[in-house]
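Retro notes (design track)

What went well: tokenization of the new backbones is finally stable.
What didn't: we kept losing track of which sequence belonged to which structure.
Fix going forward: every design gets posted as structure first, then sequence, in one message. First example under the new rule, 117 residues:
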């Protein structure tokens, strides 16, 4: 089994309920193709570096996936025709970092670091 990190960017006008439906839709596609969703993170609405299809912001959803290459093929095939998505990216990794929350609030990150020391 390969390990993948997969991020999708939805349009800025996508409602929270639609984002939840997108997450469920792509999780089902992963499971249907013999993959496993290890973790799902919603990074929220973030600024884009440049305009993509006339959007300045996008809602990011990040998946950590275990599976074969077939899973990624099927995911990207479905995402290419989804009008709610602006971009998607899949990266194969050697291991998952399940502890770090890169898009948490700054206070939460500071509290976790002080608790470690």
């Amino acid at each position: 089994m390969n390990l993948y990190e997969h991020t999708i960017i939805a349009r800025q006008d996508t409602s929270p309920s639609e984002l939840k439906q997108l997450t469920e839709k792509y999780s089902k596609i992963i499971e249907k193709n013999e993959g496993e969703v290890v973790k799902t993170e919603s990074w929220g609405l973030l600024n884009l570096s440049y305009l993509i299809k006339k959007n300045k912001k996008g809602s990011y959803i990040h998946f950590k996936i275990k599976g074969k290459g077939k899973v990624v093929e099927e995911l990207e095939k479905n995402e290419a025709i989804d009008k709610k998505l602006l971009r998607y990216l899949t990266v194969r990794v050697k291991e998952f970092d399940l502890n770090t929350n890169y898009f948490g609030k700054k206070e939460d990150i500071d509290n976790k670091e002080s608790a470690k020391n």
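Added context from the reviewer: The domain at 2-94+102-116 is CATH 3.30.70.60 (Alpha-Beta Plaits).
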